Amino acid sequence: MNFLPNKKLQIVMAGILLYAVSTGVSYVAFSLFLKTPINIVTPFGNLSDPTSGNEEGTKDQPCPLNGVMYTKNRKDAWDNRRPLGVMVENHVDARPVLGLSRSDVVYEAIAESGITRYLAMYLCQDAGDIAPIRSARTYFIDWLSEYDAAYSHVGGANRAGPANALGQIRDYGIKDMDQFGIGFPTYWRGTDKLAPHNVHSTTKKLWEEAQERGFGVKDDKGVRWDANFTQWKFKVEAPLDQRSDQTPITVPFRPNAPDYAVIWKYDKESNTYKRFHGETAQIDKISNEQLSAKNIIIQLASERFLNDEEGHLLYTTTGSGKAIVFMDGKVTEGKWNKANRTARTKWTDAKGKEIELNRGQIWVQTIPIGNVVEY
């Protein structure tokens, strides 16, 4: 008896086998591709700005956002533009993020399900590529409002109620740079990651678009963005022999989401705090710089779950609450204070005196009341 299958069945079986093998190979290859650092190329070539902070000349012009000293040429550039606020995600599938190492100030809080998101503020540096850009959330809008900035995001929460970020953008008169209303070439989807983790832009493209939309350095009434802007106070950072030996700082966001807990490791020599998730250093693949900051500010705020389908939540952004400030390898416990949506957030020590910050990147992390910061 002949047990060999007929020719048609042989072809079918061969096809199934070939599909299984090719699928397996593709899966392994694509998985490795996603996990392997790659050189991101924008549709416009390499737009990263290697000169930020490295120009020749006297650096005696302080950045209004974080106090860093730059040259007169750099100041001439930022004097003719408005701050940008860009929503950048931190989902594990979105890492490594691009462009944060060249931002002036970063705000971080949970978007939903313990997954954190960033609001990166730009004025004095050109970040080149920024990705992945994601959707708006209402409490980030409250922090953005302190700068009267142009707001770059991809859609946002739009369910009627207190979490309606898109409605608030309209109602507050935010200078909106929503990707859904702009598109290419200001925004594009890269090939480095899968959607929705692959929307890119650049500070150059965003500032150009902002200018075209009437969001330049002045508004339609001729008033500069910084006419009523209050700068934070800055000091001379402590010399090496006056810096403390800060142990690693662990900032928890949600106990059931350990992938989003942040560890800051203090580098005494450079007087910076370097960012890790677990033992993995967070490296910006455009600049090849580890994410780090001169000032780490932890704000504890009340958290409210809305129990809607999307899992949106709210944080208290106005009033006052506990704050923990790290710089120079030392810690100061005090309060955060913000009178209203557009008022400047300030941090005060136990005696009520405004804390003077180091000149350098400032990272503000808001966590729920009750979370314990280890340091």
How large, in whole angstroms, is the Cα Rg?
Answer: 23 Å
Class by alpha and beta content: alpha+beta
Strand order of the largest sheet: 8-7-3-5-4-26-19-22-23-24
Inertia-based shape: globular
Q: Could you tell me the strand content as a percent range?
A: 25-35%
Largest beta-sheet details: 10 strands, mixed
CATH secondary-structure class of the largest domain: Alpha Beta
The number of distinct structural domains comes to 2
What value does the average pLDDT take?
88
DSSP strand tally = 26
The CATH topology label of the largest domain is YerB-like fold
The CATH superfamily name of the largest domain is: YerB-like
Number of distinct helices: 5
Distance between the termini: 78 Å
- Helical content band: 10-25%
Detail the poorly predicted runs: 1-5, 7-40
Write a concise synopsis of the structure shown.
The chain has 375 residues and is α+β, with helices and mostly antiparallel strands. The protein is built from 5 helices and 26 strands. A hairpin with a 2-residue loop joins strand 14 (272-277) and strand 15 (280-281).
Written description of the protein model:
With 375 residues, this protein is α+β, with helices and mostly antiparallel strands. 16% of the residues lie in helices and 29% in strands. It is built from five helices and 26 strands. The chain has helices at 7-35, 72-78, 138-144, 165-172, 203-212, and strands at residues 61-62, 69-70, 84-89, 105-112, 115-122, 129-130, 150-153, 175-178, 188-189, 199-202, 234-235, 249-251, 262-267, 272-277, 280-281, 283-284, 289-290, 292-293, 295-301, 303-305, 313-315, 319-327, 330-338, 346-348, 357-358, 362-368. The strands form seven sheets. A ten-stranded mixed sheet has the order 8-7-3-5-4-26-19-22-23-24, with helices on both faces. It is globular, with a radius of gyration of 23 Å. It starts with 6 loop residues before the first helix and ends in a 7-residue tail after the last strand. The model is unreliable at 1-5 and 7-40 (pLDDT under 50).
